[in-house]
Structure formats: structure tokens, C-alpha cells
User: Fold this.
Amino acid sequence: MALVACPECEHEVSDSALKCSQCGKQLRKLKRGAFGKLCKWSFILFNVLMIVWLFSYWGDLGSMTSGSEAEKAGAAVGGALGTGMIVTTWAFGDIILGLFVLFTRPKEA
Assistant:
């Protein structure tokens, strides 16, 4: 364990210290564990996939322009219900994965 000078107050602190014991300046950033990184990247990937799913669904809805008025009305109602289901799934998934990300963030000792 070596001693290094704090960049703020020049007080000597351990190189493994998170904060300076004299002035409280943060010396190094806390890091997530492996499960925390998995949760964080799962959250990011889930959001990207939901965006792709939503836009591809809307693209499929946009291609349904032919047919009778009743078919178009049915497609509009179905599109609204489908979009609502996707957004609801997205919201619940974000809440669950967001809680995992929140509870696996690095903590000070």
C-alpha cells in the first residue's frame, strides 16, 4: 500500500482510498461488480430492442393501406392496442431492470 498526494489538498492518503481523509475529495470511482454490469447492459439492450420492436411494428402497420374502410378501421384499432401492449411491456421491463440496476450500483464501504 503506497501513499499518494491528494490533488486537492496535498494530504498523503493511501492509493486504495476512495476519498481523501482530509478534504473529502473523491480520488477514484467506484466500480460495479460482474452482476451489476450484467444488469446495466441488460437494461440498455432491453431499451434498444424495445425501440427496434416499436418502430418495426409501426412500419408493418404503415404497410396496411389497402382494403376496405372496415379493414382500415380494424387495423387502426389493432395498431393502437398493439402499441399499448408494447409500451406497457416496455414500462414494466424498465421498472424491473431499472430496480436491478439501482440495487447493484457500487456502494461506499
